[in-house]
Design a protein that fits this description.
heterodimer; A: alpha+beta; six-stranded mixed β-sheet; five-stranded antiparallel β-sheet; 23 strands; 25% helix; 33% strand; B: mainly alpha; 13 helices; binds magnesium ion
Chain lengths: 359, 264
């Protein structure tokens, strides 16, 4: 259990800045996830922490100790690779024992620790198999056990579940959460899947183009995205540019030719430029009664309707030029059949004041 | 119907190719059991006398000893060198690396006779005069590229993350080589070794320039014997060589999958 701190980490490849002044921190026992699209520098950051890549700038601190110049073999960090990298010529038990062997742990003690760790990942019965004789999920557990048996100061994992099918993936996520909580180990995890990040993490750092855009708890990142990029990555795909209009109580926001309710608790000067973000599933639609906008709602026309089964998604063209995406549940809702909207139909889009966020 | 005909034609073609490849070898083996004093095909009578005759030849026995020692020596020296060279080449991020790799292929495309002459000139310039030493150096140099190639091929199939995984688990450079890289490229190394043995044992063009009257390899001994006599003892010795080579090739294939290694 250790305290991990990255202090202004940067890495250049030629003229390309793969990682740019990344400063993040995970307290003892915390689960920190680097979340971002492909190529944003997640793996590079992870490899810098592991000691497999030297940073061009910045420092890596473990429990306050500067380990930036230490080789990977000296850091005592457990790593699960994207390709798993199990040693194909060793049995499961030998794979798991490798780190202990390198540390010259006595054979008897090592055997005991390997056995206990295989119990933790529920693979005790397969100790004598070779990696090629295991299923994908079982191989995953071996990689995890191998990284954990050395009692690493921190555990780092690079998209370990990328190759698994959806069901197994979900099972392994639950398993990983159980194991890391059980051992109370500080973890640094990399993924490009926001659901996975939300489910596993204590802290999420959203990366884009080598930089950290926002770092916070899953709730913070999900509910109060700090930048349009984070908002978009977190599923807030509707963004309206507008101005704050001070007035009674919470105030209003003038955007897309309408006066919309402002999220509660925003105290901004009158006329301040704002960006309003709304999740597609929080937008309610109703047929437009007559021409002209209604109070607190946006009038528009359905230009695309896609049926997904349990819900339908609609793209709505606004007279101001932009579009909104709304996702509505299908089927019964409060005893009434939810209406389906057709392409070309004029609709009113509205949402509760609390459903929108300022970005 | 047409499919069947096509398949039949294809089989016939494959059969003919094998026949063409193997018939001369079968022929030699048959002739070696000839009972007559001249090579005739098919043999009129059968005996093992030419094996005895071949064995009685001082030049064949000496050649066999020289060739065996030479092949073992050259292969044992070349193999560790090949492993080191391949590892260095594999890890290097140097821009000249593809060129160097291509250069290593040179002995595969340059005529053997040219290599023989080059070695003769180079060793003369270095003032290496003893035939055994010249042969050992010559054969080592000649088989080295094959070793490097087979080892490089097995290194290329290795997931680089294996080495990194071992590193994060606390293994230093030597431990990583010893416990991870070496066991995984061992088939390639052994294949290179056996390959080297065969190539050295079989070589004429390099030895031709480096041997002398007192130190002669078996292929050279056979060639000079053929200049004066054309009896089936040459067929007998050839049959023995076929048996040994075939044995090694089977070993190679069984143990490490020759096809896989050559494809790499
Ligand atoms: N050794 C290298 N040499 C040059 N460029 C590199 C090197 N390693 C990474 N890069 C570049 O740095 C950027 C970040 O790479 P990185 O592997 O960290 O991305 P990532 O976020 O892990 O992406 P993914 O989700 O696809 O794995 C990429 O644009 C990549 O091309
Ligand atoms: Mg990556």
């Amino acid at each position: 259990m250790a305290h991990l701190q990255l202090d202004g980490i940067g890495r250049r490849y030629g003229h390309f800045q793969a990682v740019d002044s990344v400063s993040i921190e995970a307290g003892p026992g915390e689960f920190l996830t680097l979340l971002g699209p492909s190529g944003c520098g997640k793996t590079t950051t992870l490899r810098i922490v592991a000691g497999l890549v030297e940073p061009s700038t910045g420092r890596v601190l473990l429990d306050g100790r500067d380990v930036t110049r230490l080789g990977a073999a000296q850091r005592g960090i457990g790593m699960v690779f994207q390709s798993l990298a199990l040693f194909p010529h060793m049995t499961v038990a030998q794979n798991v024992a490798f780190g202990l062997r390198m540390r010259r742990v006595a054979a008897g003690e090592a055997a005991g620790r390997v056995r206990r760790m295989l119990e933790v990942v529920r693979l005790g019965h397969l100790a004598e198999r070779y990696p090629s004789q295991l299923s994908g999920g079982q191989q995953q557990r071996v990689a995890l056990a191998r990284a954990l048996v050395i009692e690493p100061s921190i555990l780092i994992l690079d998209e370990p579940f990328g190759a698994l099918d959806r069901k197994l993936r979900e099972a392994m996520q639950v398993e990983l959460r159980r194991i890391t909580r059980e051992l109370g180990i500080t973890s640094l995890f990399v993924t490009h899947d926001q659901e996975e990040a939300l489910l596993l993490s204590d802290l999420i750092a959203v990366m884009n183009g080598g930089r950290i855009e926002q770092c916070g708890t899953p709730r913070e990142v999900f509910e109060r995205p700090a930048t349009p990029f984070v908002a978009d990555f977190m599923g807030v795909t509707n963004i309206l540019e507008g101005r704050f209009v001070a007035g009674n109580e919470a105030g209003r926001i003038a955007a897309a030719g309408a006066l919309l309710p402002a999220p509660p608790g925003c105290a901004l000067p009158d006329g301040a430029p704002v960006r309003l973000g709304i999740r597609p599933e929080r937008i309610a639609l109703r047929p437009a009664a007559g021409p002209g906008p209604a109070e607190g709602a946006l009038a528009g026309e359905v230009v695309e309707a896609i049926y997904h089964g349990s819900n339908s998604s609609y793209r709505i063209a606004l007279p101001s030029g932009g579009t909104l995406t709304a996702v509505r549940p299908n089927g019964q809702e409060e005893g009434q059949e939810a209406p389906l909207f057709a392409v070309g139909q004029p609709v009113l889009a509205a949402w509760e004041a609390g459903a929108a966020t300022l970005i | 119907m047409i499919r069947m005909l096509q398949r039949g034609a294809f089989r016939a073609l494959v059969g003919a190719t094998y026949l063409f490849l193997l018939a001369p070898l079968a022929c030699v083996v048959l002739v070696s059991f000839n009972g007559e004093a001249v090579q005739s095909f098919p043999p009129a009578s059968w005996s093992l006398r030419w094996y005895a005759h071949a064995w009685a030849q001082e030049s064949f026995r000496g050649g066999l000893l020289v060739s065996t020692l030479l092949a073992c020596g050259a292969a044992l020296i070349a193999t560790p060198l090949a492993v080191a060279a391949a590892l260095g080449l594999h890890r290097s991020r140097w821009r000249g690396r593809p060129a160097l790799e291509a250069l290593l292929l040179a002995p595969l495309v340059v005529p053997g006779i040219v290599i023989g002459i080059s070695l003769l000139i180079a060793l003369a310039a270095l003032d290496v005069r003893e035939a055994p030493l010249r042969l050992l150096i010559g054969h080592t140099v000649a088989i080295l590229p094959y070793g490097v190639r087979t080892v490089l091929a097995s290194l290329a199939r290795l997931d680089p993350a294996l080495d990194e995984a071992a590193e994060t688990l606390g293994a230093g450079g030597w431990a990583r080589f010893r416990h991870v890289t070496l066991p995984l490229i061992r088939p390639g190394i052994l294949a290179g070794l056996v390959f080297g043995l065969i190539l050295s044992f079989d070589d004429v063009s390099v030895s031709l320039f480096l041997a002398d009257a007192r130190t002669n390899t078996l292929p050279l001994a056979i060639m000079s014997y053929l200049e004066y006599s054309f009896d089936p003892s040459v067929a007998a010795i050839s049959s023995m060589l076929i048996a040994v080579t075939l044995g090694l090739a089977v070993l190679l294939e069984r143990g490490f999958g020759l096809k896989r290694l050559l494809a790499g």
